[in-house]
Write a structure and sequence with these properties.
The protein has about 450 residues and is mainly alpha-helical. Helices cover about 60% and strands about 0% of the residues.
Length: about 450
């Protein structure tokens, strides 16, 4: 059974052996939060699609605003859960950790939950995966890498990319083990011999194969146990990070859909009313604007969902520590059916709306085009040298200055090279990716 005293330990990546964190004006977990806020990957979320491409006529959420809201909900969940844990486990109080610190762990992890997502949302993830699965310029790399590495390439996963970025020396974040564990909703690699479909934590994967040792280091420090030879149990706070995301995207995507006119206001009210229960007073909707009513209903709904989620966490906390509980908390709360109905309507009227589908189609073309151009140039330089052209040379000059362009060849496994290429492209904002695609394809010219 996992112990909270270890699960909430204050160590972090980059600590020297024997280092013991001490209390300061800011807790170790508040330091995590601040480092994330000021990081370049987090800032880039301001120009990454949440659901809708950025419209001119109405405010809708970007990945940045969504992440800030998820973090806010996560902090509330973590503080409430922390108060319960400190009351239940007297030994935990001896570590001098506070409920606010536990809230900071969840808030920091929630802040980063989308940091590995590529341009154009989930369509971007599929586009990167499809490039290696189906495009000739992607398929040529299969014979040069190991099976578990090829599985990573053919199944791009934003959660795993996020973990890679958070432990990367490139960004120097050096987060605490607890924050990274709370971030990791899917503590397993991409290639496993058997996936237990009953376990939510095995639905996707949470780290690429070359970050396996990083996760092993994290799990050993925190005492996170394995559910099998290839998979681990979740850190219990990861359930709260997941719930914060589920709550926000369910309620706020619906609000955005209503703002954009894809779901009418009356339907939106009917979907939210079962969550609000006796807090729903139709008379209060009179003599106020639609935007004011949406804001009030959203706040009430999120507040109710936070209360229900904390109650569910309290009920199953011991089972989480034993590794027996492995479901999404929002699937078992009293409002689960209401959330499911919102999801069904959102899929039908929002996620499959023309504006969203057009954005996804553009994303496939842009990311496939960029991967093809850069991937082919790299392949020609190192693995098919007789075809390395002047065009390839020009393309490779567009790569970042710190891109690893030395040491590759026919006898060298190019997996790290391809990971760096994916880092470059998946880290782009929507607009930068689109503009670079236009330039490398000759559709537009700089300064024209």
């Amino acid at each position: 059974m996992m112990k909270w005293e270890r699960l909430l330990a204050r160590g972090r990546f980059g600590d020297t052996p024997g280092f013991i964190a001490t209390q300061a004006a800011r807790s170790e977990f508040e330091v995590d939060y601040d480092r994330i806020i000021f990081s370049a990957p987090f800032r880039n979320l301001q120009d990454k699609t949440q659901v809708f491409p950025l419209p001119d006529q109405a405010f809708v959420h970007t990945r940045l605003t969504h992440s800030l809201e998820v973090s806010s909900v996560g902090r509330s969940l973590g503080k409430a859960a922390g108060a319960y844990l400190l009351d239940k486990y007297p030994n935990l109080q001896k570590t001098a950790i506070s409920s606010s610190e536990i809230g900071s762990i969840v808030a920091a992890a929630a802040l980063t939950h989308d940091i590995g997502n590529p341009p154009f949302g989930h369509a971007g993830e599929e586009a990167i995966s499809d490039f290696f699965k189906f495009h000739p310029a992607g398929q040529v790399w299969e014979s040069h890498v190991r099976p578990e590495q090829w599985m990573d390439l053919c199944n791009f996963e934003g959660n795993a990319q996020g973990f890679r970025m958070l432990v990367s020396k490139q960004f120097g974040l050096k987060l605490t083990y607890a924050t990274l564990a709370a971030f990791t909703k899917y503590p397993r690699p991409s290639l496993i011999s058997h996936r237990d479909v009953a376990r939510r934590s095995q639905k996707k994967f949470g780290f690429f194969i070359n970050q396996l040792t990083d996760f092993e280091q994290l799990s050993a420090f925190l005492g996170i146990e394995q559910s099998s030879e290839e998979c681990w149990y979740r850190h219990p706070l990861a359930f709260l990070v997941e719930a914060a995301d589920d709550i926000c995207y369910s309620i706020i995507d619906l609000e955005d859909g209503c703002t954009m006119g894809l779901v009418d206001f009356d339907t939106t009210v009917k979907l939210l009313a079962p969550i609000l229960k006796d807090k729903f007073v139709p008379e209060k909707l009179k003599n106020r604007s639609q935007a004011q009513n949406l804001g009030a209903l959203r706040a009430l709904a999120i507040g109710e969902l936070i209360e229900e989620t904390v109650e569910a966490f309290i009920k199953y906390e011991e089972s989480m520590c034993k590794g027996n509980f492995d479901k999404a908390l929002t699937d078992i709360i009293p409002s689960a059916k209401a959330l499911q109905k919102i999801t069904e309507i959102s899929i039908q009227k929002i996620y499959r709306s023309k504006i969203v589908l057009e954005k996804e189609a553009a994303g496939f073309q842009v990311l496939e085009g960029l991967l093809s151009v850069f991937g082919q140039a790299l392949y020609h330089q190192f693995y098919q040298t007789e075809r390395f052209s002047g065009q390839d040379k020009s393309i490779l000059r567009l790569l970042p200055e710190d891109f690893p362009l030395k040491g590759w060849g026919a006898e060298v496994n190019p997996y790290p090279l391809l990971r760096s290429l994916i880092d470059f492209i998946s880290g782009m904002t929507d607009k930068y990716a689109l503009n670079l695609y236009r330039r490398v394809k000759g559709i537009s010219f700089p300064g024209v």
